[in-house]
Batch of 4 targets.
Target 1
Amino acid sequence: MQRKEQLEQNQNKSISRRSITWRPPPENWLKADVDAAYRRATVEGATAVVIWDNSGRLLTGESMRIITHSSLVAEAEAEAMRRVLILATNFNLEKIIIKSDILPLVQAVKSKTYIAEVEPILRDILLLAESLSNCGFTWVPRQGNKITDGVAKCSLAGQLEENWR
């Protein structure tokens, strides 16, 4: 029995050691990472958007502090997703893959369904996405979104100016 437990522990360690590597988007496409940070005690949040080209070069990004109306971090993350779509529209970025580490949010956008607490934001996301000729959404594990997570946390802590593009 002890051997089986030891094997399971080793397997779990192996899984947690797997590195998440950044994969570039296809040529002529961009990748946008979105993330959010949230402080329950004050219902404050911060959004972060970082846009990369297919060689891994940072093109632009922004962060913004927000007041959330829901205790769900999905509201702040959905707001970040809306922000990247607004940026893409304003800068005429036609081919963009948007990554989020909130799986239910990505599933809702891809299936064009709603999460009640963030329905108005999701409606905006779907309208903005339709206005772009090529736009996709994908889920990434939290470990694959560390830079954008750091930007959101710095913004929430007041350590980063808003709209630092």
Target 2
Amino acid sequence: MNLTDRVVIITGGAGGIGAALARRFAAEGAAAVVVADLDADAARAVADGLGPVAHAVGLDVTDEEQVRALVADTEQRYGRIDLFCANAGVTSGGGMEVDDAGWDRAWRVNVLSHVYAARAVLPAMLARGSGYLLHTCSAAGVLTSIGDAPYATTKHAAVGFAEWLSVTYRDQGVRISALCPQGVDTPMLADGLAAGHLGARVVAASGAVLTADQVADAAVAGLAEERFLILPHPEVADYARRKAEDPDGWQSGLRKLVRRLRA
């Protein structure tokens, strides 16, 4: 996808990867960039920094009616939606002990929000035979997330849903990509480190933390090539191969890493 003159929606657009995507898409010449976020004021600040090309919307991605309203308003305002970036995400920092409310929040934000977006935008995209969905899924959806059971589980589900969409709709003109970065210097990582979450410590110790702008660069390159898996950290592809070839050895290596960090 060439982003010039495209109409784009980005959820979770007020910070981190979402804000970086908004800036990069605007720089690429997008016709409109809709910055949607639960924090409407922060979304407005990002949009204001991009000039008249951008529009900010307060949005709870777990409310399907709000997602439908956002899509309808954008189509009425700009005539179409070329690219929908389902980027909002949450972590928990916990394991099985995370309560049902925490598991439900992870499921609704990390998975169901992608379902709601697809339900809302696909009819018009399929009718005209073109469109693109970019789902931020994380390398946790390809590998795992040490110390965060809800995140690992729901991100796997997010990759699975994106893959299903691609298999089902690519031949009808709709492209789907799963953006799967590993460590990224965002408020999510900073908050995890401040809380002492094991997963955040693993990421920080890896020495491969990218900036959000670097992830946005990788996303633009992946969209241009219409790749399903967009891996800003290329080593994730090697890790995934090792995991597939030797699951027991892969898990053994992760357990050693956990023991070292806990020591």
Target 3
Amino acid sequence: MTTVHGISDPNYVSRQYRDASNLNVRLRLHQEFSTNPQGWHRWLFEQIQLPRPCRLLELGCGTGSLWAENQDRLPQGAEITLSDLSAGMVTQAQENLRSVRAEFRFAGLDAQSIPFQQGTFDVVIASHMLYHVPDREKALGEIARVLKPDGVFYASTVGLDHLKELKELAARFDEDLLFWGQMPADSFHLGSGVQLSRFFAQASVQRYPDSLVVTDAALLTAYMLSGRIDLSAERQEALAAFVAREMQAHGGQIVITKDSGVFAARGSLHA
């Protein structure tokens, strides 16, 4: 039996991110096989302008990788609140950042109902998470509300062609996986600037140039199994064998498109 879960299904999101295990599998693939020598989190941090002093909120902080990988760049005196809907993720972020010299605060919260007063933050970050939010308009309204009038919202996401070769690989293995990895057109992707225009006066986007050249069939299979699909043990074994054959047929590697970037939205219309 093959099951494909919706990317914003609350039950799926809750199970998927109850701890860091699935996320770590996906991060490892990108860390080992990305062609851009500047890692994603180092690049992303360069796109974020942090005023001094700064009050910052990150929604969906995951394991805290953005801050762990940029600890040498953190501005002094910044008040950084890291939050996630998953208590397991918050705990992992706390552990990962225990030795980092910065003023971190941690919170479990829902982006659709942010428990801070209007105009609290200079910067709000939502990295690769808005497509998981069931009521995105409500979340964007909340983000615009808690930003200061001159504050900036940074929202990273992927484009519709992100990992397109991997999606095609999955569909060749099983036509029931045709929609594995596909992002609905009304989700939040790099073509979704119009969604931000309802809440912010300006929004610009920067893309991160990168691709994957994967030479480890087992890790690629683990990546595919780490999110949105449920396969029986027998079908998992069949997928692993299929990926290995495909990689061998392509000279021992599979080249995969990456399309990621970040919006910077300014001028909250709810300030």
Target 4
Amino acid sequence: MIVYRLAAKQYINDFTGTGAKLFGGRWNPVGHGCIYTSEHISLALLEKFVHANHKENMERIALLRIEIPDDPNLIFNTEEKLLKKSWADDITYSQWLGEQILGDLSIVAFTVPSAIVPSERNVILNPAAAEFKQVKFLPPVDFTTDFRLLSKLLS
């Protein structure tokens, strides 16, 4: 499985999940490191955009392609139908669930629906997993897109 991560150039090579550990996220509480990725570059862009405070946060970013082994024992697929109906509006719930999954060190990654595009999936990597060394990080590349859209939406 290939997944994509968009991040500020200065943080793109952090494979420890430090940012998520320090600040928490939808699927992890503070204190639990992980790496947020998406199954599609376009979803990674939307996820990055929704968290950007200023246009500048979107201008100096890089794209990282990540290969996760296609081993069903290493990847947990969170089924949306089993999630609490209001999961997208209840960050306490999604963080609790993510904490449970991140605590299972046999799971290298878990997939979750995107709150932005629920029919698409984000993939959360667990750097503390026993087999995390099987994940392959390809060299990052500068990310470019047509920023006209972003300039209309961000100040």
